[in-house]
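Work through this:
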Amino acid sequence: MDGGGAEGELTAQETALYDRQIRVWGVDAQKRLSKAHVLVCGMNGTTIEFCKNIVLAGVGSLSLMDDHVVTEDDLNANFLIPPDDSIYGGRSRAEVCCESLIDFNPMVRVSVEKGDPSLIDGEFLDKFDIVVLSRASLKTKLFINENCRKRSKHIAFYTINCKDSCGEIFVDLQKHSYDEKKPGGATEQQELTYPSLQEAISVPWNNLPKKTSKLYFAMRVLEDYELSEGRSPGETTLSDVHAVLARRKDMCDKMSLNESRIPTTLVERLLAAGKKEHPPVCAILGGILGQEVIKSISCKGDPVKNFFYFDVADGKGVIEDIPPPSAN
């Protein structure tokens, strides 16, 4: 979607079903939402919360990509998978989640896209307005983000990850215009320019504000280690702690950052998490992402720019605006 005026009218059935939210964000926003096409790669505790939220809100279509066969471990945080092996046995996460999501709102088209996210080409992406990745390698995230930016149409890009009690969301809306509500009820159009993921993670650490979230740095260390070792997200565990801490030291020395900004206890928590997700944290992250995607589609409200972090240890969410290197 290009953020322009919505065309066409909502049906009487849509107007009745979405009456309460239309009262909140208006009919034009609902029209835009009903025409938006979303792709989610990776079905887990965070993305199923997000999918539930946008399906209930009335997104136009939702496509799910995750060919991994459901295992018993998936039941821990994924409530869309019935705890019945006769239902999920031998089937992919995307297929099982798709069946459950259709029941949430029959007016939303939910479908499965088979394939490997790391092999997605630009022409395939042209079908979508929003792309969400979860539990993907840094290489895959950079690849898809770059392809989204190369397309002639505007494609918003998000990543979301939960590491047990911690979570991260990244947002790239490229150039985004939106209406900001001012005191007294008036609105004023604002415009934001987002860096790509590559630009955002390339900023020298010593150029970042001292209050920058420790999770931002810790996630970069873990990503860098996984990339260099050819590991998939979640495959690095506590048994790798010494190697990961050595990588932390190397990166901090290179970036002129005190190692204390990335506490050893935090690194250990992330490693101990592995692929585990804490359902309450998934609900928070999925709720935030759903809210952000709706703001992006409707062009209403101040969107996150460009990282969001949540840590149970702090009990709060933090937004980090990481500018591209040239902006420092």
